[in-house]
Amino acid sequence: MSKGGILSVVGAGFGDEGKGKITDYYANNWANVVVRANGGCNAGHTVTVGDTKVALRALPSGVLNDKVVNIIGHGCVINPKELLEEIDKVQSLGFECILFISNRAHIITEYDIAYDKATGGKIRTTGNGIGICYAERALRNGIRTCDLLETPEKIKELLKETLSYQLYNDNDIDLDVYSSILSEYGKSLKEYLCDTAISLNGYLHHNDNILFEGAQAAMLDNSYGYYPYVTSSNPTTAGLSVGSGIAPKYFNNTIGVIKAYCTRVGAGPFISECDEELANIIREKAHEYGTVTGRPRRIGYFDCPIVNLGKQLSGYDSLAVMLLDILSGIDELKICIGYEDKSGNATATYEYSPSIERLEDFKPMFLTVPGWKEDISSCRTFEELPENAQNYIKQIEEFTNLPVKIISVGPDREQTIIRDI
Ligand code: IMP
C-alpha cells in the first residue's frame, strides 16, 4: 500500500460480510485514521484480538489500535447512550479509544427507537431508530450532536419538533427527564465533538493513510438496493464521500468485502438463497446470527450478479472474500452466475427489476463446482489452498471480473491470505 490517500472498505452483499476484520487489518498495517461515515448502531462488526472478541456497533474498528485516530463523520446517526457504553467497553479492555465525532451528526432519540420498533416490522429493521433519525434529518427537524451541548430546556424544545415525538409520543418516555438525560450525554460527548470534515481534509492533505469503514452494504443502499428492504443511508463509496466531507475525487481505492457464500438478515428478495439443510450446516458452523439482533441469518450461494451490481455503484478495485474456511467439507458448491426471469430469459446485472414482486420471480443460474475436504484455516498463501478452493476463487474472479486480493480463512488477524496480484 502506498503512503497517503484513501482506502475504502465497503460491503459488497447484504451486510455482515466481515468488514470489521478487513478494516482492523488495515488499521494495524497501514492506516493512521479510520472513519465511519454512514449508518449507526445498526452495523455490527466483530473483531477478534487475541482471545478477545469485541463487537463494535458504532465505533470505527481502529479503536482497537492505540496508534489510530478514529472519526465518526456527519453522515452517521448516533445513539448517544450506546456510543458512550461502547467507548467505556473499549476503554475497559485497555484501549485508549482516540475518537472524534462530527458535531453535525444526527442523534437517534428514544422516541426514534420506539417509533422504529412499532413500525419497522415489515422491513424487519434492526429496531435501532436508524430510518426514523434519517427521516428527521431530511425533514429538518432532527437533533444533532451539537444540540446536546444546549440546556435541557432548549433540548426539550427541539425534541418536541421531531417527527417521532409528534407521531409517536410514547408516554413511557418523560420529555423533561429525557431532555436532561440528553444534556448529560452532551457533557460526556463534548470532548469528542468537532468539525470532522475539516479534520479529515487536514489529514488528507498531510498525506495521512485514511481508511474508510463502510457500514451495511451495496444491496442495502437506500436508493438502489432492493427498496424498500434496505437501510436508510447510502452504503456505497459515494455515500462515504457525502458522509465525511471529503470530495469524491480522492476515493480511488475500494475493496468490496463479500463472504464466500451469501447471507442476509431481514425480509426481502434473496435470489441465491439455498435449501435449509445446507443453510443450517453453514449457519451453525459460522454462527450466522445477527451481531446486533441475534436473528438467524438467511444463507445463500455466492452471488456474482450482486457483486457486479455493487461494483457499478462503488467501483470496487478488488474483492476480499471472507469465511472461505466455512465451506470446507461440502462436496459440491454452487456459484450463482446470473439470473433467469419468469420466461426463462437470462438477465444481466444491469437489468435488475426495481419491482420487488418481479424480482421474486427471478431464479438463480448456477455453476456447480467441486468442493474440498481439507481444513484450510492454517493456509497463509493462495498456493497452500487445496486446488478446488483455488478454483472456487478463480471462478469468482472470472464472473465478477475483479481480483480477489484478500481471502479470510478464520477469525484471527493472522488467518488472512493477502495476494500480491
Ligand atoms: P435498519 O438499518 O435498522 O433501518 O434496517 C433496514 C434493513 O437493513 C433491515 O433489513 C436490516 O436487517 C438491514 N440492516 C441494517 N444494518 C445491517 C447490517 O449491518 N447488516 C445486515 N443488515 C443490516
Shape designation: globular
List unreliable stretches of 5+ residues. Answer: none
Relative strand content: 15-25%
Pairing-aware structural class of the strands and helices?
Answer: alpha/beta
Mean pLDDT: 93
* Distinct ligands: inosinic acid
- Main sheet properties: 10 strands, mixed
Residue share in helices?
Answer: 25-40%
Count of beta strands: 20
Give, in spatial order, the strands making up the sheet with the most strands.
Answer: 9-7-5-2-10-1-11-15-19-20
* Contiguous helical run count: 13
Radius of gyration: 21 Å
Distance separating the two termini: 13 Å
What this model shows, in words?
This protein is of the alpha/beta class. It is built from 13 helices and 20 strands. The strands form five sheets. A ten-stranded mixed β-sheet has the order 9-7-5-2-10-1-11-15-19-20, with helices on both faces. Strands 14, 16, 17 and 18 form a four-stranded mixed β-sheet that branches. Strands 3-4 form a two-stranded antiparallel sheet. Strand 19 and strand 20 form a beta hairpin. Helix 3 (110-119) packs across helix 4 (130-139). The radius of gyration is 21 Å and the shape is globular. The mean pLDDT is 93. Inosinic acid binds next to helix 4 and strand 10.
Question: How do the helices and strands line up, and which of them pair or pack?
Answer:
Layout: E1 5-11, H1 19-29, E2 33-36, E3 45-49, E4 52-56, E5 69-72, E6 77-78, H2 80-92, E7 99-102, E8 106-107, H3 110-119, H4 130-139, H5 152-161, H6 163-167, H7 175-189, E9 193-194, H8 196-205, E10 209-217, H9 237-244, E11 254-259, E12 262-264, H10 276-286, E13 298-300, E14 302-303, H11 304-314, E15 318-322, E16 332-340, E17 346-347, H12 356-359, E18 363-370, H13 387-400, E19 404-408, E20 416-418
Parallel strand pairs: 1-10, 1-11, 2-5, 2-10, 5-7, 6-8, 7-9, 11-15, 14-16, 15-19
Antiparallel strand pairs: 3-4, 12-13, 16-17, 16-18, 19-20
